[in-house]
Amino acid sequence: MRATKNSKKRDAVKAFIMETHSHPTADEIYSHVKCEFPNVSLGTVYRNLARLEETGEIKKLSFTTGPDHYDGDTSDHYHYICRSCGRIYDMPAEVKDVIMKAAKAGAPGTVESHDLVFYGVCRDCLKSTGNNA
Amino acid sequence: MRATKNSKKRDAVKAFIMETHSHPTADEIYSHVKCEFPNVSLGTVYRNLARLEETGEIKKLSFTTGPDHYDGDTSDHYHYICRSCGRIYDMPAEVKDVIMKAAKAGAPGTVESHDLVFYGVCRDCLKSTGNNA
DNA sequence: GTCCCTGCAAATCCTTTGCACTCCT
DNA sequence: AGGAGTGCAAAGGATTTGCAGGGAC
Question: I want to staple A84 with a disulfide (CB 3.0 to 4.6 A). Which of A95, A125, B50, B121 is the partner?
């Protein structure tokens, strides 16, 4: 395992992901960290995100469209994506037990993790206009 | 809605996705269609994949790494990805009812669809070497 | 003939990487 | 000093797009 030195930039990246619940993209994280460290580079953000994901401190979320998002909440939970506004919401992990049981029955090998993603239109979007932007 | 004309290329793209169970990538589809139509272009494959997905004839699968895959089986089922060999397996949809019930309870809006993806190491890989390629 | 479909190549988007330099220990 | 961290910019992979020509109706 490679030695890890202190890094203000990495701390800033992690701090932002931890404090926000917005599941930011690399670019959003970059913009934010840039306020505190105007000379930070996007490459550094990506490198630190990769490192933080490796160590399990954050989770990377990939969807069918657009860039990856990052989540500082590594506890069991799922995600809901509004296909109108694109916002990502957290969903409780209630179904985890059932899913793992089903996995044991049907999986062609070991199951180490899984992702459950819901797609729909959130109440805010249904309420505000009734149409999809 | 735009009119749709007959297209040999699109038929070939669709036929291949329908007949294979390998969840091919755009590039794999391109390679295959190129056998029958040597002058087909990758852009055309992507355009036709997008069209077929729009009409619901096929499904696009995105994962945390690598290119998108396409699935001709649009029935309810989930996917298992071996993180050793990268193969994608189908998993039965047994848990769908539970998931939809949980979704109704916890979702911040309507739920129109969802994706459940499992990650692990398949038996083939566990068996053959015990290590990850 | 009209409009869709296609080939080609350039462009775009997102992400990774090489290299030289800086900072931490 | 020595190696990890960084900025910058170029490279990279995947996908999309503009445009002109070809094909279906």
Answer: A125
